[in-house]
Amino acid sequence: QKILEKYHDLFTLQWEGVIGSMGAPSQAEWEQLLTNCSAFLFYGMERFMSHVLPNWLVAMNIPKCRLVILLDLVRSQQSYQRIKNSDIHKSCLRIALERPTETAMLLSLTGVGCVIATQWYTSLEENAERLESLFENLLSFGKTTGQTVYVLQK
């Protein structure tokens, strides 16, 4: 919340989304958010694709979305239990589609111009640091996504 408030003035006038206790978005809400944005940020627990249906995502056409930032792969006891219970009902192929590389490929196939994503499990604190660095470099300094990712790799 602090990071969003800090960079609020640098965002475009049309900033919308779902935060924290507002509840989990439905598939229709995910679709609306992705199709009506030029940039999309997911900052959450477990795998982004565990929240959306792959067959729904691949049917989408979202070329207006130029950038997707996925700060996911955070695990807590509760999120691990939820994902474990959910994965029991999924095929191995479906679970494989939820991995970072496969998620980036699916998003690219829908028309997304650039995907920045975590590749391994991390903590909320580490993702907060990544978000701060992303916003600082993209919004304050006006760096390109490539330059920003390079900064994150250091």
From TrEMBL:
Q: Which domain of life is it from?
A: Eukaryota
Q: Which InterPro entries match?
A: CFAP46 (IPR039586)
The signal peptide, as residue positions, is none
Gene Ontology BP annotations: axoneme assembly; cilium movement involved in cell motility
PANTHER family the UniProt entry points to: CILIA- AND FLAGELLA-ASSOCIATED PROTEIN 46 (PTHR15977:SF15)
The protein, known as: CFA46 protein
**Organism annotation:** Sylvietta virens (Green crombec)
The gene is: Cfap46
